[in-house]
Design a protein that fits this description.
Elements lengths: L1 E6 L13 H4 L8 H9 L5 E6 L7 H5 L3 E4 L6 H13 L3 E4 L2 H5 L9 E4 L6 H9 L6 E3 L25 E3 L2 E2 L10 H5 L4 E2 L2 H13 L4 E5 L8 H17 L4 E7 L7 H10 L1 E9 L3 H6 L10 H10 L3 E8 L8 H12 L4 E5 L7 H8 L26 H15 L2 H14 L17 H15 L3 H14 L4 H20 L1
Parallel strand pairs: 1-2, 1-3, 3-4, 4-5, 5-6, 7-10, 10-11, 11-12, 12-13, 13-14
Antiparallel strand pairs: 8-9
Helix pairs in contact: 9-10, 13-15, 16-18, 16-19, 17-18, 18-19
This protein binds iron/sulfur cluster (SF4).
The site of iron/sulfur cluster has 11 residues, from helix 7.
């Protein structure tokens, strides 16, 4: 049976880095790991193929050649999911949809034949059994969360590796915390489940043998959700990296309490982690309490960021405005915080009530929901999917003022320089080998041509690069990468 796995296109987003990809000649940041995992779970009689619309075009003949089509997507891909499903249906195909969007969404369910709600590991075998017997159901809802210890190696070979700037692997699912706006804990639960060390090393081996070198993203929503298991994994990765001459640098997401664990930070650094994304959300304690992000309260957030940076990891972070407790000064407070924390890549969004979250349920009870929205929190007034306490125009205007300020070239480059200063390079695995967006001389030439010659902000670029060379020459590659990414954020800021 020929199975076609389709990842529909994403809209331009902060994570997507679309404006920066032209510098390193890739077409997307990450491959769709969910589909690579689904492929590994298919029965032996299936032969799978991946079309990732982020890096290639979906052609009619791709659809016509398939016996069964699987489509995945997040809420932000909603429109594209519907388009792909309708297109495949129009060509007479049986279409299966799964992934985060259909797992939590309650409106506009795609017109697919079969819909998987929740993690598909336990329901896929039943589906194929039903299919063979000619009685497949429309909905397959996972009643329990699967153990990850039995998962096979994702089919990385299906992805056209050279079209991505980073590879993805997963160690854990779930997070022990309880943030009100978070859909992760609804989908994956609050008891983190992990793969074994053997599985993770096998995945590294798999990517290594396919020729991948460079950046790998641990997609875990909270990499330190299960610290006990992590403490056995990290030394094994340190050893693996040494035995393979440090081919990879890692990047992940973690909760801010990572700053409290010196030994874990040291292990991560030794393993080759050079970037971590934190959900900081807001410097306003009352808003953190409101959203039940209690792990970020009763601490000096700036100190916590600095501790992580001092262990050789660039800190990226997410920030949110629009909490009920936010006061009119929140926009300036966010700007000040981002400035002082030296977080170059700050993702600031307006609060969104994702379907089936605690926030969604509360706002529903309070009669303040306006619909599911698009899942993007950067669409201005049109993107607001609830009635905020603050005047909506003030909220959206304030959000825009943050973006305008923090991604103004000089402001951004100052943060980038401070971040380089605070983030010491590790051993030989976090230097030039750590390039994700800037691979080699050709990429550097493109950055110089676009940002140093064509771009209207070229003077700021040269001022920044001069300081990188004079003050942080060992971080030269990271400096060029910052310049490329800053261009993406700046372009996004003005395209809204
Ligand atoms: S720490 Fe992150 S993943 Fe965990 S509940 Fe909060 S927002 Fe969700």
């Amino acid at each position: 049976m020929r199975v076609l796995l389709i990842n529909p296109k994403f809209p331009v987003s902060y994570w997507g880095m679309q404006h920066a990809l032209k510098f390193d000649g890739t077409r997307a940041v990450f491959p769709p790991l969910g589909l690579l995992t689904v492929s590994s779970l298919l029965p032996d009689y299936c032969e799978s193929r991946l079309i990732d619309c982020e890096v290639e075009e979906l052609k009619d003949r791709d659809i016509d050649n398939a016996d069964l089509v699987f489509v995945t997507g997040m809420l932000v891909q909603k429109k594209a999911v519907h388009e792909v499903v309708n297109r495949c249906k129009a060509r007479g195909k049986t279409v299966v949809v799964g992934g985060p969007y259909v797992s939590t969404s309650m409106q506009d369910v795609p017109k697919a034949d079969h819909i998987f709600v929740g993690e598909a590991e336990t329901t896929l075998p039943q589906f194929f059994e039903d299919l063979m017997q000619g009685c497949p159901k429309r909905f397959y809802k996972a009643e329990k969360r699967p153990e990850l210890t039995t998962l096979p190696l994702p089919h990385f070979r299906l992805a056209k590796l050279s079209r991505y700037s980073t590879m993805s692997i997963q160690f854990s699912r779930g997070c022990p915390f309880d943030c009100e706006f978070c859909d992760i804990i609804e989908i994956y639960g609050r008891v983190p489940r992990t793969k074994t060390t053997t599985q993770v090393l096998a995945e590294l081996d798999g990517l290594f043998s396919l020729g991948w070198r460079g950046s790998i993203f641990f997609v875990d929503d909270n990499f330190i959700g299960n610290k006990k298991t992590l403490r056995t994994l990290l030394p094994a990765i340190v050893k693996w990296q040494k035995n393979h001459e440090h081919p990879f640098v890692f990047f992940t997401q973690a909760s801010l309490n990572l700053a409290d664990d010196e030994s874990l930070l040291e292990q991560m650094r030794e393993a080759g982690f050079n970037t971590v994304f934190l959900g900081i959300e807001t410097p306003a304690e009352e808003s953190l309490v409101e959203t039940q992000k209690l792990q970020n309260t009763r601490r000096n957030l700036l100190d916590s960021v600095r501790i992580i940076q001092s262990h050789g990891m660039e800190v990226m972070a997410g920030f949110i405005v629009g909490f009920d407790s936010d006061r009119p000064d929140i926009f300036q407070r966010q700007i000040e915080f981002i400035r002082q924390s030296a977080i170059p890549r700050a993702m600031v969004g307006v609060l969104t009530a994702l379907p089936d979250t605690k926030l969604w349920r509360r706002l529903d009870r309070e009669g303040r929901l306006l619909g599911e929205g698009s899942g993007s929190n950067n669409e201005g007034l049109a993107g607001l999917n609830f009635v905020p306490k603050m005047d909506p125009h003030t909220l959206i205007g304030g959000h825009k003022s943050i973006l305008r300020t923090i991604y103004a070239p000089r402001e951004y480059y100052e943060r980038a320089l401070e971040s380089l200063k605070r983030t010491p390079l590790g051993s030989d695995h976090s230097g030039y080998k750590g390039l994700a967006l800037v691979k080699g001389v050709a990429a550097l030439a493109r950055v110089i041509f676009y940002l140093g010659v064509l771009d209207a902000e070229r003077l700021e670029f040269w001022r920044f690069m001069k300081r990188v060379v004079l003050e942080h020459h060992r971080h030269f590659a990271q400096g060029v990468k910052f310049a490329a990414m800053g261009y993406h954020f700046r372009t996004m800021r003005f395209s809204k």
